[in-house]
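Hi L.,

As promised, Aldehyde dehydrogenase:
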Amino acid sequence: MDFSTTEEFDQAYKSVHDAFATGSTKNKSWRRQQLKRTWWMIEDNKDEICNALYIDLHRHRQESFLSDLAMAQADILHTLDKLDEWTKDEKPTRRDLINFMGGTVIRKEPKGVALIIGAWNFPILLLLQPMVAAIAAGCAVILKPSDMAPATQDLLMKIIPQFLDRDAIRCISAGPQEMKHILEQRYDHIFYTGSANVGKIVHAAAAKHLTPTTLELGGLAPAIVTASADIELSAKHIAATKFTNAGQICLNVNHVLVDPSVKDVLITSLIKHFTVFMGSKPQPEYYTHIINPRNFDRLDSLLKVTNGKIVYGGNRNRETRFFAPTIVTNLQPNDPLLTTELFGPILPILESNLDEAINLTNKTETPLAIYAFTRDETEKQRILSETQSGGVTFNDCTLHVIAKDAPFGGIGGSGHGYYHGPYGIREFTHLRTYTNALPAWMEGVMAARYPPYSDEKLTKLFPPVKPGFDREGNDVSVRSWKRWGIGLGLVVLSLGIVLGDQSQEFISGVLESVHQVF
């Protein structure tokens, strides 16, 4: 299928903006209908989706079903169940005069038109999951599937208009040249999943319009294996993660930093588990292949330039893009395998005690994940307190990503913004605060706010406050200020007599604040 033309994109761009302007996407019934139809779009096209993923990635149905289809459908059902809760307006504390008397509300409104740019490694999930959040927030959406997974792209171009609102949700196809025109346009939010290099291009384009972005990138996620780890189970979890999707996962283990005392045992166990996973055939049919020749050549060149030693795997076939799980040892910290996001089935292993592992991790761009294998709680706390990453899983890999209603996202070089559960909806939501004027009868109390200004009026509005700490930040006694607190309490009680029973929450809040200070 050819890419969308400039005219086709411009028409789609106008359509979604016009649809959002009508207010139709803000309707909860519209949101629910689109989410339900998305669920059925996946359900009714499971075979076609799995076939497309096999064409693009040589991925087995079981892996595709679990990683792309089941997760997307589960996310839709959970979002439908929680939609009212996650999108309802909020009321800030009523223990504040303006909030209490003005009825302040934090209104959750859709940002507007969102551009969602999907990735090729999970081309269904990583496009539809942010779309679900955008629809749930009430946005209109332009979807751009990855052109590097063409079979899946073409299928999405076919089924999305069959199932979803053709005015408010449009799917377009584009390559790098076409994306220049697409990114020149103004959106209300851009959600991008992919490489850091392209992420910088997207972010720069968004900045021209001050458009907020969510960037889900990647990084050099380490697996840190200490001497206290369960080595057999650690090896099994690391091998299974590296095997999945042939290592083409932004969250995958990039390299292993293992304590010297357990290095040999870990390698032996990794080889054992990889051998089991690969089965009896040298190129099992159920093993995913590299997405395209360019990425195959990139991985191939890394193996050719490394100074390390291949101790397992290394088998590869450029024609079929089969690239076996490959363990490389005897490395130096500056080896290309340890300074590049591999995004493939190569597993470099470097001897490092915990101090060295933490130091090496902190020298790279902040990774999207850290996987730490240890049974020592002190070591866990050191990793949490002395490193940064998008997330952490202890004694396994990627579990923090599927933790229900928990945020997933990067920091620094691994991206910014969050999604999954309520956090995804929050990305596409504008929190719009509104309040009302204080009652007219309070004008006398608030007269000091008006010109002409004077020191006397300033003192009335902001009486002197003595904090409970000195200039060095040390806590000090504030007994001399108790009389001020008592006086304020009497004023509040007097106000309560005027306001009646409805003032109870406000008064109790002020009195509690006074108690905390004095």
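The CA atoms of residues 85 and 422 lie 9 Å apart.

Thanks again for sending the construct details.

K.
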